[in-house]
């Protein structure tokens, strides 16, 4: 599946239960195309790391404090950092065991992480 054109967009999915409030998405200024400056490759914690301010804006615009955020591709754990900063619950996993092990070794002391977190959620599927 190749193309002569370079892909310049990534898709995001917002999944939620049946809304009880039709105005859940409070920030109506978001369009369907966003431009954010990304970190230089040498400064990224993970090859696919998204800009922190974009992640924060999306979480704040679409969730309330105390809501649960799922990140099935947690790699750099930027979503976890934003969730703790904005008082949201976090559940994350990553396909790459080394990313999860590195997180537990380096970041875990500074975050409140449950002992029952599975290192590789996909090994149970």
What does this structure look like?
This protein is α+β, with helices and mostly antiparallel strands. The chain is about 25% helix and about 5% strand. The chain has a domain at about 45-125: Rossmann fold (3-Layer(aba) Sandwich), CATH 3.40.50. The protein has 3 helices and 2 strands; from the N terminus they run αβαβα. The protein has a two-stranded parallel sheet. The longest helix has 11 residues, at about 50-60. It is globular. It starts with about 50 loop residues before the first helix and ends in a 19-residue tail after the last helix. The relative contact order is 0.12. Mean pLDDT is about 70; it is low at about 115-125.
Helix content: 10-25%
- Structural class estimated from helices and strands: alpha+beta
Kindly report the name of the CATH homologous superfamily of the domain at 47-124. Answer: Vaccinia Virus protein VP39
> What name is given to the CATH topology of the domain at 47-124?
Rossmann fold
Beta-strand portion reads: 5-15%
Write out key terms for the chains shown.
125 residues; alpha+beta; Rossmann fold; two-stranded parallel sheet; 3 helices; 6% strand; globular; disordered C terminus
Helices and strands, with pairings:
Elements: H1 52-62, E1 68-71, H2 78-85, E2 89-92, H3 97-106
Parallel strand pairs: 1-2
Helix pairs in contact: 1-2
Summarize the structure.
This protein has helices spanning 52-62, 78-85, 97-106, and strands spanning 68-71, 89-92.
């Amino acid at each position: 599946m190749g193309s002569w054109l370079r892909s310049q967009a990534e898709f995001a999915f917002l999944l939620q239960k049946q809304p009880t409030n039709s105005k859940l998405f409070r920030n109506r200024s978001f369009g369907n195309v966003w431009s954010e400056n990304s970190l230089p490759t040498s400064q990224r914690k993970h090859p696919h790391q998204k800009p922190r301010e974009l992640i924060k804006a999306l979480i704040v615009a679409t969730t309330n404090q105390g809501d649960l955020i799922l990140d099935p591709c947690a790699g750099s754990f930027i979503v976890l950092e934003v969730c703790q900063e904005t008082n949201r619950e976090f559940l994350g996993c990553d396909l790459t065991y080394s990313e999860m092990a590195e997180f537990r070794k380096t970041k875990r002391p500074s975050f409140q992480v449950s002992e029952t977190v599975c290192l590789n959620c996909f090994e149970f599927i």
